[in-house]
Amino acid sequence: MNFIGANILSVDQFNLDDVNTLFSVAEKMQPYATREKVTKVLDGAILGNIFLESSTRTRVSFGSAFNLLGGHVRETSDVSSSAFVKGESVRDAARILSGYSDVICIRHPKSGSVNEFADFSRVPVINGGDGSNEHPTQALLDLFTIKKELENKNRDLSKLRIAIVGDLLFGRTVHSLCKLLSFYPNISVVLVSPDRLSMPTDIVEYMRSAGLSVCISNNFNEGIKNVDIIYTTRIQEERFETKEQAALYRGKFILNKDIYSKHCAPETVVMHPLPRDSRPEANEIDFDLDSNPNLAIFRQADNGIAVRMAIFAMVLDVVNQIETSSAKVNWHVSR
Ligand code: NCD
To answer: Looking at the predicted structure, is the pLDDT value of residue 49 above 90?
Structure first.
């Protein structure tokens, strides 16, 4: 695809070459993401960061990525103080807010609404998550992380064995990730969820018709055996009709030190899009795993910066200008 001026709405837009190109740009962004260098390549540009659902990582990392490229960020993140509560439509919001920005990231609770927003926007729109549908940039940073974690262990992405665990019905990150994994026909996937929260059949079919081996299970201890990566997720409480319904599924699959050492192959990498639900009744990944070097969740979140910088640089067509407008940092870098 041509990234210049494009909307990023779904992983369906990409082919494997697109993803690899984006990852090579993300690698070039690493020195900026880790504050070895600064660039002003987007000096004067404005990101409209519109988050109509709760978010920490996606919102802040989009904003930070734009700042790290030298651009400015304008946020709309409190629905109750926006004109949406006065009944403003998505299409009018798109017409208005795109007049104030050079690019927009938007998260919306309703599936498909980001596409509608993009139809009426005058600037490129990036989907920061639309309902339970898709979360394309999270899936890109997840695949980027999978690739790096496996490279560090001299393992081959094309033969990945991955267990994807949790709320696979409502989890938008896993919907997008499963489609990206489908670029690699020799991957085997175990989808572990309560029966009621299983992966939508169209996505299972998508993977199977791409050649992947897909096993569906509700048995956590079995599903996490003999895989390279466990990608676990939170029960998406906000998508259930009542909190009581969500509570029925919380705490079913808890990964902790004991379970890990009993059931996982050595060096199994643990990922999660975050936030992990750390309430005792949920606790997908116990704090007792935090000292395990195979817990990749914080590296995964960090990778969001470089990947999102790459997306902005490609969409706004500044990849080739980054080096020329770069400098060393002036301050002490403590990370
Ligand atoms: C995810 C999301 O919002 O879909 N979070 C994120 O963006 N990293 C996952 C979740 O909220 O459980």
So the answer is: yes
Checking if the pLDDT of 159 tops 90, the result is yes
Structural domain count, the chain: 2
Phi and psi angles of residue 275, each rounded to the nearest 5 degrees, phi first = -75, 140
The active-site residue, picked from 59, 107, 179, 272, is: 107
Please list every protein residue whose CB sits less than 6 Å from any atom of ligand 1: 57-58, 129, 135, 138, 172-173, 233-234, 236, 273-274
Q: Do 79 and 218 share a domain, yes or no?
A: no
Answer yes or no: do 278 and 153 share one domain.
yes
Q: What is the pLDDT of residues 281-334, one digit of tens each?
A: 999 999 999 999 999 999 999 999 999 999 999 999 999 999 998 999 998 888
CA distances from 232 to 39, 47, 248 (A): 35, 31, 17
Residues forming a β-bridge with 38: 327
Check whether 79 has a pLDDT greater than 90.
no
Are residue 263 and residue 282 in the same domain, yes or no? yes
